[in-house]
Design goal:
By secondary structure, the protein is an alpha+beta fold. About 40% of the residues lie in helices and about 15% in strands. The protein contains 19 helices and 12 strands. A hairpin with a 4-residue loop joins strand 10 and strand 11 (about 500-510). The radius of gyration is 31 Å and the shape is globular.
Length: about 525
């Protein structure tokens, strides 16, 4: 049995702590023990509860003195009383009364059950609850990746108002999350889809949906957000292609839909409405060049608040993962710590407090991080001239880099939105004031200069029963000529209980897709060993 009695600071505490194994769990226990140990009145014990709950330091300090005074009067050792009080102070940071704790436990049990048995539906509800908080959305979407749940962009044939799970167990972004798309348009799309089934084509969509609610602007927003990508016959760019009359295709498309619906309504009221089908020429979808990927994704991000269909840094995934030794989330934490903000940094949620408490600014260490430039501004400097502020973003967070003096002259040209860059920098004590730590930029260069130069080798660990994946490795060897590195194997000899290291004479191209495939198969691998 668990020796909970050893946890009692005083034998008389067993009366109230026996059921919780010697640990103070509920506010009621603090109230009862303060009366028993230090002779607190009912009013004083309730004041203690309130002071703990609201972290009222002045009241706590006053009651601490009373606690020691009353406890010593009752014959308790001051060291024991001090230990009890210090335990209570820690307990007070997250204390509940018994009924509240019971409710929390019940809710925790229910949510754990839902997450275990209905993971997609549960995470869809969590994402919907945080629809307007991009930071929390990103965190929960990362959780979905860990759980093996794909979070896909909006789709007019699958999306509901908020995040929802589809029949394949994937999560779809909600139509109401598209910025600028009104509630009437969303309601019109969902109502028509539920009443008459999914939309089979772009023409079917404009022929059926209420175009008063879902007007041209709404259709353009749907296109830019990727909600119409389910129609393979048209690309996002085509909606904005102008004809000889300087009309964009979305305008022509809406006019066609309005004419079709008008004629259909007239036919339904005609005595001879069932004689002939409606014959209206469908507008020809223009053939256009695809926008640059960064433009497509930037427009998508502007509307849904994040990159969903892809990320601009995906072409540099290998360089970001293995060529950089830190990410922008940690750079934000380092900056907060260096600026003296401590736990007040806003780059992480409450769940990151423990990490912030243990984190230290790495002094005199080279930090390598990359990102895509999302904003750049120049401002007048106090010393005369200008300085630049470059905002970059990676998979984890965003970070602002100030460019002064030589750095401004050398690196200002990289401040073009859409540029992918890699930064080498460090935190160093100031030469004039060693107690002050400065952020120093060593170099900034295009991220594509690292492509193919950061990965030296890949070592794959295999058991005897993993040999079936050799065919997949053979296919990967000829996949591309880019990003090729040495291929190593670590074979497990279970009979002799040892590992055998082998080197292939072939080089293998590395890609995010290939490494994800290894992860999915549970194959262990190491890069740059």
């Amino acid at each position: 049995l668990f020796p909970y009695t050893t946890l009692f600071r005083s034998p008389c505490m067993e009366k109230y702590l026996k059921d919780t194994y010697g640990i103070t769990v509920y506010q009621e226990q603090v109230m009862l023990l303060s009366r028993q140990l230090a002779g607190f009145t009912r009013g004083q014990s309730d004041t203690l509860r309130k002071a703990m709950g609201k972290k009222q330091i002045d009241k706590m300090n006053h009651l601490e003195g009373l606690f020691y005074e009353g406890g010593e009067k009752n014959g308790h050792d001051r060291k024991v009383l001090n230990k009890i009080w210090e335990d209570w102070k820690k307990f007070a940071s997250y204390a509940f009364n018994k009924s509240h704790a019971t409710c929390y436990s019940w809710v925790a049990y229910q949510t754990a059950y839902l997450k275990a048995n209905y993971p997609s539906e549960y995470m869809a509800a969590v994402l919907s609850r945080n629809l307007n908080d991009v930071t929390k959305l990103s965190k929960f979407m990362d959780e979905c990746k860990v759980m093996g749940i794909a979070v896909k962009g909006p789709d007019i044939n699958e999306s509901r108002k908020k995040f929802s799970a589809n029949k394949n167990g994937d999560i779809r972004f909600g139509l109401a999350g598209i910025r600028g798309l009104g509630g009437n348009a969303v309601d019109a799309i969902i109502a028509e889809r539920e009443q008459n089934g999914p939309f089979t084509s772009l023409y079917d969509f404009v022929e059926r949906v209420n175009l008063t609610a879902c007007n041209r602007k709404a259709i353009e927003l749907l296109a830019l957000a990727g909600a119409l990508d389910c129609f393979s016959e048209i690309s996002r760019e085509a909606f904005f292609e102008a004809n000889s009359k300087n009309e964009v295709f979305s305008e022509t498309l809406v006019r066609y839909g309005q004419q079709f619906q008008t004629d259909k309504k007239m036919q339904s009221t005609s005595l001879f409405g069932d004689i002939e089908p409606i014959m209206i020429a469908k507008p020809v979808i223009p053939k256009v060049e695809r926008w640059p990927e960064i433009e497509r994704l930037s427009r998508e991000r502007d509307l849904v608040g994040m990159y969903l269909s892809a990320h601009p840094l995906d072409p540099f995934f290998m360089e970001m993962k293995f060529g950089c030794n830190t990410d922008l989330r940690h750079m934000r934490l380092y900056k907060d710590l260096n600026d003296g903000k401590g736990n007040e940094g806003d780059s992480t949620s409450d769940e990151g407090e423990e990490e912030r408490e243990t984190l230290q600014v790495p002094i005199d260490q080279e930090l390598v991080f990359g990102g895509i430039v999302v904003d750049y501004t120049e401002r007048p400097s106090k010393k005369g001239g200008n300085f630049g502020i470059m905002k970059i973003e990676d998979y984890t967070d965003s970070y602002e880099i100030a460019l002064f003096d030589k750095n401004f002259l050398n690196y200002r040209n990289y401040g073009i939105v859409g540029n992918s860059i890699v930064v080498r920098a460090s935190f160093n004590p100031s030469r004039y004031n060693p107690s002050k730590v400065m952020f120093n930029i060593k170099s900034i260069e295009p991220l594509n200069t690292l492509k193919g130069h950061m990965i030296n080798n890949l070592r794959i660990s295999l058991n005897e029963d993993d040999l079936a994946m050799v065919d997949m490795i053979k296919d990967q060897l000829t996949a591309t000529t880019e990003n090729r590195c040495e291929l190593l194997f670590r074979m497990r000899d279970s009979k002799n209980n040892r590992n055998i290291d082998l080197r292939s004479r072939y080089k293998i191209p590395l890609s995010k897709k290939f490494l994800l495939a290894l992860d999915d198969m549970g194959i262990k691998y190491e890069v740059n060993v």
